[in-house]
């Protein structure tokens, strides 16, 4: 997990899964590679809700991040782009 962005309004975290299954009960079996999937969690601090992007949504968001790396947007531009995802945020953030 890698924090990509943190402001008064949003947090964006890149979640990278393990590329291998954990070892099973048989020590003789090698670890089996899995198809690596990654995702992004966007937390809207204003509403207390989050959205998890994976699959094609994550790929589109990755393209947005690459564009930000090339163009160095202002904080207002980043926040405006993140604000477009808030309509997808349905899950309340629960702190354990």
UniProtKB/TrEMBL annotation:
Protein name: DUF3567 domain-containing protein
């Amino acid at each position: 997990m890698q924090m990509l962005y943190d402001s008064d309004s949003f947090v964006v975290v890149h979640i990278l899964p393990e590329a291998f299954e954990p070892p099973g009960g048989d020590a003789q079996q090698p670890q089996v590679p899995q198809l690596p999937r990654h995702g992004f969690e966007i937390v809207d601090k204003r509403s207390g809700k989050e959205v998890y992007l994976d699959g094609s949504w994550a790929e589109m968001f990755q393209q947005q991040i690459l564009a930000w790396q090339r163009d160095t947007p202002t904080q207002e531009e980043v926040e405006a782009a993140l604000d477009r995802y808030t309509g997808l945020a349905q899950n309340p953030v629960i702190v354990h």
